[in-house]
């Protein structure tokens, strides 16, 4: 009897399972196969074309002794930490404000989410113009009478990352707001009623009750934002092209330049493998918290 039920479960929704086969095969061949191929050839001295001349960890030693790579890692860490913190905090605060059943909520939500519909190239170009000292914010403020006002972050090596951060927050905060708002709307209204009956202040309700209940939403948001940060490329190319100097270099630019401009595939593969390792460092704890933790619980 148990065997019959198991067979029935196997054949249930068979059409959907068959339809998923091409997607599964494509994923295995393109993603898994491509990833394995990249990691394998990162141990070769491939130049313009791949070649099976293995050199061990030479490419990785050369990678971590390259000042440009080290600078790009440092830049990504600074940008990544600030972007994670501000995107999640601002997105949550906006979601809290939207959750107060304000008038024209749909309009405001659309306005806040609209930048996310733009590509990073468009966002980068828009903010390059806005931050341009000749006709951007600096020019407008000086035209209002503050002649000594200076705001030119994209041409200042010490401030260029913050110029990128402004554009990144403008694009990504609305999406995080929608995720947080969905999480807030999923909380039972009885919890709010019980908190009001007990006389718990609203701010304490959020901190002690709502935030712990939204843990899965925060973890998912953290993973999505972190994955986007690791592969940051379009925004930097559109706004600064990695300048001034190497002040806004990021790992994805290093990979692209070595693979397609310096014609050093081995070095590009090594750098992309390190980026893959970084993504795994983010995804594995998330997968454990989401699935392993529940299983153990």
TrEMBL record:
It comes from Pseudotabrizicola alkalilacus. It is found in: Cell membrane. GO terms for biological process: transmembrane transport. The chain crosses the membrane at residues 21-43, 76-98, 110-130, 159-184, 205-230, 269-289. InterPro entries: ABC_transporter_permease, MetI-like, MetI-like_sf. Coiled coil: none annotated. Its main location: membrane. Pfam families: BPD_transp_1. Signal peptide: none annotated. Belongs to the binding-protein-dependent transport system permease family. This is Sugar ABC transporter permease. Keywords: Cell membrane, Membrane, Transmembrane, Transmembrane helix, Transport. GO terms for cellular component: plasma membrane. It is a multi-pass membrane protein. PROSITE patterns: ABC_TM1.
């Amino acid at each position: 009897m148990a065997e019959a039920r198991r067979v029935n479960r196997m054949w249930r929704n068979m059409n959907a399972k068959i339809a998923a086969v091409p997607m599964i095969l494509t994923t295995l061949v393109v993603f898994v196969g491509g990833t394995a191929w990249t990691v394998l050839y990162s141990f070769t001295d491939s130049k313009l074309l791949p070649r099976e001349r293995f050199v061990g960890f030479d490419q990785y030693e050369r990678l971590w002794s390259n000042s440009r790579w080290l600078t790009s890692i440092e830049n990504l860490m600074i940008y990544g930490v600030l972007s994670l913190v501000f995107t999640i905090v601002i997105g949550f605060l906006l979601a809290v404000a939207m959750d107060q059943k304000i008038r024209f909520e749909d309009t405001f939500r659309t306005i806040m989410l609209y930048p996310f519909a733009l590509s990073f190239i468009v966002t980068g170009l828009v903010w390059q113009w806005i931050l341009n000292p000749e006709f951007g914010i600096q020019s407008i403020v000086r035209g209002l009478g503050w002649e000594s006002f200076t705001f030119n972050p994209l041409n200042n090596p010490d401030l260029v990352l913050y110029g990128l951060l402004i554009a990144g927050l403008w694009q990504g905060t609305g999406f995080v707001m929608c995720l947080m708002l969905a999480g807030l709307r999923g909380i039972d209204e009885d919890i709010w009623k019980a908190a009001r009956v007990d006389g718990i202040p609203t701010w304490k309700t959020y901190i002690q009750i709502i935030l712990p209940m939204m843990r899965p939403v925060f973890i998912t948001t953290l993973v999505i934002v972190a994955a986007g940060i690791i592969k940051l490329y379009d925004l930097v190319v559109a706004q600064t092209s990695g300048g001034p100097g190497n002040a806004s270099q990021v790992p994805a630019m290093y990979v692209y330049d070595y693979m397609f401009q310096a014609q050093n595939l081995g070095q590009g593969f090594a750098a992309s493998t390190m980026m893959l390792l970084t993504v795994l460092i983010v995804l594995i704890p998330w997968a454990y918290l989401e699935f392993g933790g529940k299983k153990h619980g």
